[in-house]
Amino acid sequence: MQLTLLPGWARGGATRLQVEAVRVDDRMRGNGLGSAMMEWAVAEARRRGAALVQLTSNLSRHDAHRFYERLGFVHSHAGFKLVL
Asked: Among candidates 56, 58, 50, which has minimal Cα distance to 11?
């Protein structure tokens, strides 16, 4: 996974941690590795003073969405991209 700290203007200038490219090999799924990775990312966000952890996930990844919701993430925004 890729983690990026983002300073921001929103939320009173709060720093956010952006989580991207979370991947667990198919053969390793179901053993808690993904949960452990995300728990570490959240702990790292706290350690670095972030007020929010955010991530995006492709709309077709229904299993991933359920996984993130089980971890407490809330589906809150629609995203847009412009391919260049």
From this structure: 50
